[in-house]
């Protein structure tokens, strides 16, 4: 399946992501999930970014939390709401929110 | 005539937040969805419990006695009474130290004939792949 | 153009998940898609009339009404969830509907995509 996963939280959700498999997996970091794209705890990036997936982060939620595109891990693409709509309709058949 | 399959995946604990309760009641509402659809069209839910969500499936919940609300146990039984496909993740049940006989696996006491299935996560993954839409709660 | 059904159980104030749902709906409508937004559980309160905008709380009522007015977005609230919260039919925001939970399932039947926000 082609699955887009909206990750809306920080530190939680790994239980789902660790086991989930998809032919095409997109991880879309929104809400507090954006910390996975920016915070390096003890110098280490979030383990979420180790998944075999394409990563996106929502710019509004990023900026609302004091970050900019410059703070985002190079594996993550910065997107806006319009981009999310296109991802939902064009890139992924199913979407989930965790 | 068409059938759309919905996968309700419950990963939240039974009380404090409403997620698992609403997942169950929405899944059960598939029994009356035909009033909005064309003749022959159906919505078929599968209800999967994963992670901490398996704790919704414990027997002997006394929520009615103490909180005055229907227990999640009752909702699981109602789902089985209505022949919904209920899957419980075995790895998570084992991880949490739950014995199978502590789980609601049937609704015989209220006349149900369908049993819940304790399955490896791989079966739940297959169920998620087979549905049209996924609803995580 | 497609149809997106969004279901949201999250709180009107605090969670920011309804804010996300409304902004995503707006972007989808702007791109020519149809949106059904189902609000249930604590999310039901999004559809209540008489919300006052304060700067410390999410204020989505105006945007929701603008989107409903486009004719390309429908907002429907869970009737039982509303009544359980003391929110009566006459308190429903103009243009918003109230139905039982099976309405949401029917909406998913005809949806091209579903995004279900099931958290609190």
Describe this structure in words.
The complex is a heterotrimer of chains A (98), B (137) and C (120). By secondary structure, chain A is α/β, with parallel strands linked by helices. Chain A has a single domain, classed as 3-Layer(aba) Sandwich (Hypothetical Protein Ychn, Chain: A), CATH 3.40.1260.10. Chain A has four helices and five strands; from the N terminus they run βαβαβαβαβ. In chain A, helix 2 links the parallel strand 2 and strand 3. Chain A is globular, with a radius of gyration of 12 Å. The mean pLDDT of chain A is 97. By secondary structure, chain B is of the alpha/beta class. Chain B has a single domain, classed as Hypothetical Protein Ychn, Chain: A (3-Layer(aba) Sandwich). Chain B is globular, with a radius of gyration of 15 Å. The model of chain B has no long low-confidence stretch (mean pLDDT 97). With 120 residues, chain C is α/β, with parallel strands linked by helices. Chain C has one domain: DsrEFH-like (Hypothetical Protein Ychn, Chain: A, 3-Layer(aba) Sandwich), CATH 3.40.1260.10. Helices cover 31% and strands 22% of the residues of chain C. The mean pLDDT of chain C is 96. In chain C, strands 4-3-2-1-5 form a five-stranded parallel β-sheet, with helices on both faces. In chain C, 52% of the residues are buried. Chains in contact: A-B, A-C, B-C. At the B-C interface, helix 1 and strand 5 of B face helix 4 and strand 5 of C.
Summarize the structure.
By secondary structure, chain A is of the alpha/beta class. Chain A is built from 4 helices and 5 strands; from the N terminus they run βαβαβαβαβ.
Number of helices of chain A: 4
Number of helices, where a helix is a run of at least 4 consecutive DSSP H or I residues of chain C: 4
**Count of individual beta strands of chain A:** 5
Specify the CATH class of chain C.
Answer: Alpha Beta
CATH superfamily of chain C: DsrEFH-like
Measured between the Cα atoms of the first and last residue of chain A, the distance is 18 Å
Instruction: Report the sheet-strand fraction of chain C.
Output: 15-25%
Features:
A: 98 residues; alpha/beta; Hypothetical Protein Ychn, Chain: A; 5-stranded parallel β-sheet; 5 strands; C: 120 residues
């Amino acid at each position: 399946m082609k699955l887009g996963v909206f990750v809306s939280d920080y530190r939680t959700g790994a239980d789902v992501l660790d086991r989930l498999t998809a032919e095409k997996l997109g991880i879309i970091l929104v809400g507090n999930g954006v910390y996975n794209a920016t915070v390096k705890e003890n110098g280490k990036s979030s383990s979420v970014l180790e998944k075999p997936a394409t990563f996106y982060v929502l710019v509004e939620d990023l900026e609302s939390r004091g970050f900019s595109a410059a703070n985002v891990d190079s594996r993550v693409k910065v997107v806006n709401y319009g981009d999310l709509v296109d991802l939902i309709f064009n890139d992924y058949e199913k979407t989930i929110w965790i | 005539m068409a059938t759309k399959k919905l996968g309700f995946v419950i990963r939240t604990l039974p009380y404090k937040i409403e997620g698992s309760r609403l997942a169950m009641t929405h899944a059960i509402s598939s029994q009356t969805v035909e009033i909005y659809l064309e003749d022959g069209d159906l919505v078929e839910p599968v209800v999967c419990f994963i992670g901490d969500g398996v704790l919704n499936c414990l027997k002997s919940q006394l929520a009615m006695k103490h909180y005055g609300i229907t227990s999640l146990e009752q909702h699981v039984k109602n789902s089985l009474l209505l022949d919904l496909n209920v899957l419980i993740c075995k790895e998570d049940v084992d991880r949490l130290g739950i014995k199978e006989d502590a789980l609601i696996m049937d609704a015989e006491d209220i006349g149900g004939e369908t049993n819940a299935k304790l399955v490896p996560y791989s079966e739940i993954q297959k169920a998620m792949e087979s549905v049209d839409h996924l609803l995580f709660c | 153009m497609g149809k997106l059904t969004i279901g949201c159980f999250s709180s009107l104030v605090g969670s920011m998940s309804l804010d996300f749902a409304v902004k995503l709906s707006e972007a989808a409508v702007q791109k020519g898609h149809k949106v059904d937004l189902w609000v249930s559980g604590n999310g039901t309160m999004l559809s209540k009339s008489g919300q006052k905008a304060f700067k410390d709380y999410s204020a989505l009522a105006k945007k929701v009404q603008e989107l409903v007015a486009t004719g390309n977005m429908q907002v429907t609230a869970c009737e039982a969830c509303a009544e359980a919260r003391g929110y009566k039919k006459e308190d429903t925001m103009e243009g918003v509907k109230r139905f039982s939970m099976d309405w949401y399932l029917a909406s998913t039947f005809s949806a091209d995509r579903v995004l279900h926000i099931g958290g609190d």
